[in-house]
Amino acid sequence: MQHILVAITGASGAVYGLRLVEELLASKCRVTLLLSRSGRQVLAHETGLDWQGSVAQRLRKMREHFTCGEQLMHYDEDDMFAPPASGSASPTAMVVAPCSMGTAGRLAAGISGNLIERAADVALKEGRTLLLVPRETPLSAIHLENLLRLSRAGARIVPAMPAFYQQPQSMAELIDFMVGKILDGLGIEHKLFRRWGDDAS
User: Reaction catalysed by this chain (predicted)?
Assistant: First the structure.
């Protein structure tokens, strides 16, 4: 069973992280979900989900939301003794969706100020799959340089740029396209969008 670490940081687009977790759980992956404080604030503003409270309270709310049990775990962003902080822990991959430019900048500088940053740093140093889903526009030269540095360090950059060749009819289809691209990067099969060249019927 694959174990995927998903982090939601304080950029717009928390729904990408939520939808990704849904698909990972449906694919029978173990999921550890991390949220920064800003990520929880954006999540509440954009989706109405209030995941505040203690770690135990948050985990209960998450499991209720995703209708799952021990397949989903959660740790506080300040818990540097949690398993994701150690290179001896063995998640298959990590995804930061959405990835704020602040998070990208700290990762590019090798700064591990919280569990999300430390877990991403571990993924890079251990040579594991790390996917970052930046959601910002326009991008400054600083943003671009940080993303390039991360790409050169081994991260895969998957910008939140949905395609339109499949003629999406809803916001959900646009979200699913991006989540499908993330799943492609993880090597997980899905049917979230019609691939270019596939029969439209």
Answer: dimethylallyl phosphate + FMNH2 = prenylated FMNH2 + phosphate
Q: Running DSSP on this structure, what letter comes out for residue 125?
A: H
CA distance 100 to 174: 20
Domains of the chain (ranges, CATH numbers) = 3-186 (3.40.50.1950)
- Using alpha carbons, select from 100, 82, 123, 128 the residue that is nearest to residue 37: 100
Helix/strand number for the chain, H first, E second: 7, 6
Residue range 35-73, pLDDT digits in tens = 999 999 999 999 999 999 999 999 999 999 999 999 999
Closest CA to 97 of 30, 168, 185: 185
Which residues make up each annotated binding site?
A: 10-12, 36, 100-103, 135, 165, 181
Query: Strands of 30-35's sheet, edge to edge?
Result: 72-74, 30-35, 3-8, 93-99, 129-134, 156-157
Show binding-site residues for FMN.
Answer: 10-12, 36, 100-103, 135
